[in-house]
Amino acid sequence: MTDEVVTTEFRTELHARWSVFFDHLQVPWAYEPVTFYDSQGSPCTPAFWLPEQRIWFAAELEAPVWWGRFAMAADDSDYWGGSWGEEASRCLPVGVPEEWQGLTLLSEGPFFPDDNPGIDSWGRPDPWGGPWRFHEATGMRTYDDEPYQWTMCPQCGSFGAEFCGYAERLSCGCLDDREHSKVANGSDKRLLAAYRAAQLEQWHADNFTDPHATVLWPTVREALVHQPGAVAAAANCAGECRSLADQLRQEQCPPAAGEGEGLETLCSACPGFVCGQCGERPASAADVPCRTCEPVVLLTESQARQRLNWRVEQLTAATGIRGRRVNGIVNDSIGAKTRAGVSLAQLGVALTNVERWLDDPSSMPTGPPAPSYEDLDKLHGAELRKLLATYVGPLAGALREPIPFVQTQLNDWMGAPSRADATDEQLRDAIIQARAWIEDPDSYRAYSHPEPPAPDGLVAPMRTKTAVMDSSCNLCAAPVVAGELIGRMPRPRRPYVPMAWLCAHCLFDRRAKPRLADVLLRVFHHAFSGSTTTLLNTTEAAVLLDALVTVPAPEDDEHLQEAITALRQGIDAPEPVMGLSYHPAHAAVAALHAARPQEAADGDAAVLAAVAHHLAEWQHNPQDIDQAQYKNRTL
User: Fold this and answer.
1) Contacts within 8 Å (CB) and 24+ apart, 434-438
2) What is the pLDDT of residue 150?
3) How far is it, in rounded angstroms, from Cα 524 to Cα 586?
4) Cβ contact 162:184 at 8 Å
5) Which of 344, 393, 517, 535 is in Cβ range 3.0-4.6 Å of 604 for a Cys bridge?
6) 452 φψ region: left (φ > 0), alpha (ψ -120 to 50), beta (else)
7) Residue 209: what pLDDT?
8) First to last CA, the chain
9) Residues linked to residue 225 through DSSP beta bridges, in sequence order
10) List of residues 6+ apart from 575 with CB closer than 8 A
11) Mind listing the pLDDT tens digit for each residue in 145-157?
12) What is the helix (H) or strand (E) element at residue 608, kind and residue range?
């Protein structure tokens, strides 16, 4: 599990403060999860849904006109008492499905009274002047009764809202006897602490102006959520959540039996997952409900610090290491000398590290500082493997990735199936890269999720170095002599396989200073990826045109003439990239292969023959593949 920073946007600061109140009490909530409509389609959107208590809670400065009609429908009542005023009586009935019915509560007014903000003369929260005092005086309204107050069971800690805060009415039943009748527990110390935390919460700098203000639109609240993938789910969401299975069913080509299980959770609009319950909102992982269907409690910054300190104490007891040293290791894992002033994201990383180390105390890095490059060259075999193992825990914490996944990534970077199979040079390389990723986690994300290439060039290399021994390029297979420059490209998205070390030509010159073979391979790759157009930059177009003008071109070959014309126009155009349609590109390859230009290099001639051969096979299907099994030509 990881702790990630999520942001929630509230319509008002009042709503944001109440969300802190619920989170402090570990009460899951969903903010404006659904909009209801009356018989003429007018919307009604209550603020909070508490699924465990089945409570709709609205906190407004003034009651919405539609609240009475909504409360009546949510309570599944047919009685309209008329106590909500003439304007509310004229509102039309609201439809609330059975799955959303429950107790309705309305709190009118600011979180704390304007004349007493709940701060005493010493600047401390006043236990008799805060929102609890306000609600003791007026309480909250249900559909047909008041005053209601938040209350807690003094025995089991159950949370709810009851008439006058009578805890014996809670569903837990702990006080359900005559001896415990009329236990008004609306001022339980846990409730007071939650009110105080919500009252003193500070907001994002762009939204915070006056601590006594009650309406700010919108108010953005940052908090930690103990759920890996939550941030990615929100960032990738395109606002049109629908599973791939639903899309296929709508297109009247449903998945075959046994093939739709995985498609039910994959989103058709983004590279993420869709909630398996509602199918309308993003989920953090497969088979995990969205945060609306099953809300997750959030951690404020103060709560995160408290939990981190508590977890550090547990880690100290589990490892037998002094607390000062454990705190130093925790701070080192987030690149800070102290935790004073660190960001919420850094607190989340620290919490993730500590909780992972609690699960496996031996994974906590306790060794000496990393050796210098000179010392690293003196280590061999088991010594290097042991040193690399000390980086796995901090690296997993810095990247917020599971330890087995980080180990796999390091093995992949080394180009070895495991650390036991790695050479000393590969182990040293992995140690250096682990250091770099810990110091700059963004460099890892650039490696694992590279930016798309520019139209006129390749993605920049992730890392370059001089080759320590003779080898060959992993892309073009050209020989590489020890001492020459080599490098690695960022890791591509699955299912594409990452390449090992590449030569300098493939890293930098394949598109900036292309050879004829490079251009021919681009035509090949575009054709076999299903593209009808090959995209070339002006330099590539010039290389192909120079090769074509040296071979005899029959006048009746319309496609070849079209290719020559398109190349000339693309070179003269101001755009850095041009398109060459499939048939002209194919004609150009066929003409070059038929002419076999004498000046072509051996490598170019071999690539030319192979590309021409495969493009010809592509036309007439020599393997007699049954095309009826595939939906289109590309497949």
Assistant:
1) 434/388, 434/391, 434/392, 434/395, 434/410, 435/370, 435/391, 436/463, 437/395, 437/398, 437/399, 438/391, 438/394, 438/395, 438/398
2) 92
3) 9
4) no
5) 517
6) beta
7) 47
8) 38
9) 4, 298
10) none
11) 888 989 999 999 9
12) helix 602-620
N residues, the chain: 635
539 CB neighbour count, 10 Å cutoff? 17
> DSSP of 261-322, one letter per residue?
TGGGTBBSSSSSEE-TTTSSSEESSTT---TTTS---EE-HHHHHHHHHHHHHHHHHHH---
What tens digit of pLDDT does each residue of 112-132 get? Answer: 655 444 555 545 444 444 444
Strands 55-60 and 36-37: unpaired
Instruction: Give the tokens for residue 27.
Output: 């009460």
CA dist 238 and 245 (Å) reads: 18
d(CA 17, CA 108): 14
Question: Both tokens of residue 546?
Answer: 């120079």
Report the C-alpha gap between 563 and 587 in whole angstroms.
8
Residue 10: what pLDDT?
92
Selection from 353, 298, 270, 313 nearest residue 28 by Cα: 298
pLDDT along the chain (635 residues), means of 10: 82 92 93 89 91 93 87 82 74 87 89 55 48 54 86 92 90 76 86 88 59 61 81 71 73 65 72 75 77 83 91 89 82 84 89 90 68 78 86 75 84 80 84 78 71 62 76 86 84 72 87 87 81 84 88 79 89 85 88 73 79 82 78 67
Query: Does residue 589 contact residue 604 with C-beta atoms inside 8 Å?
Result: no
d(CA 241, CA 273): 9
The mean pLDDT of the chain is: 80
d(CA 112, CA 57): 17
